[in-house]
Amino acid sequence: QSRSSAASDVYKRQPLSSTINPLAYMQRSGAGHGDVRPLSILISGSGIYKLLDNQVVKPGSTMYSLALLGVEGIQPYLAPELLGPLNRRERQPSHDVFKADVFSLGMTVLFAATLIPNDACYF
Questions:
Q1: What are phi and psi of 53, to 5 degrees?
Q2: Whether pLDDT at 62 is above 70
Q3: pLDDT tens digit string along 87-100?
Q4: Which residue has better confidence, 3 or 47?
Q5: Which of 21, 64, 79, 81 has a CA that sits 20 to 30 A from residue 93's CA?
Q6: Buried b or exposed e, range 39-64, using 16+ CB within 10 angstroms
Q7: What is the dihedral of CA 23, 99, 101, 76, to 10 degrees?
Q8: Helix locations, 3-121, DSSP H
């Protein structure tokens, strides 16, 4: 494997690991993120990817709560098990927050890999 190819592989993995590692840490600590989507991933001036925790910025501000308010562009990142409660306007759905975060991460990675909006993936 050439040096440039190896560097390219590291460059491709860095955004993913910079998102997975904080989610894994949060899960080990018993906390779910609840807002994994492209807008929650920031890039520093030095090119470091960081996962923003909106719960720190604004407690109670999960992706689900924003979807309840009608914020556009959130539903493609919501786990399928949250769609029924969303349609029923449930304030606090019963679901596995860690599995929902993994689904949201997958949809975020899909968008990053294709740069195609994933609005119609399962609607």
A1: -105, 100
A2: yes
A3: 999 998 999 999 99
A4: 47
A5: 21
A6: ebbeeeeeeeeebeebbeeeeebbbb
A7: 160
A8: 3-28, 54-57, 63-68, 83-87, 97-114
pTM of the model: 0.80
DSSP string covering 68-94, please? Answer: HTT-TT-GGGS-GGGHHHHHTT-SS--
C-alpha pair distances (Å), 117 with each of 63, 67, 77, 113: 17, 17, 11, 11
- Write out the two tokens for 13: 């993995």
Rounded to a whole number of angstroms, the distance between the first and last alpha carbons of the chain is: 41
Nearest C-alpha neighbor of 20 from the set 95, 96, 80, 109? 109
Length of the chain in residues, anyone?
123
Q: By the 8 A CB rule, do 81 and 95 touch?
A: yes
Give the per-residue pLDDT at 5: 53
**Is the distance from CB of 95 to CB of 69 less than 8 angstroms?**
no
**Of 71, 107, 67, which is closest to residue 90 (Cα–Cα)?**
67
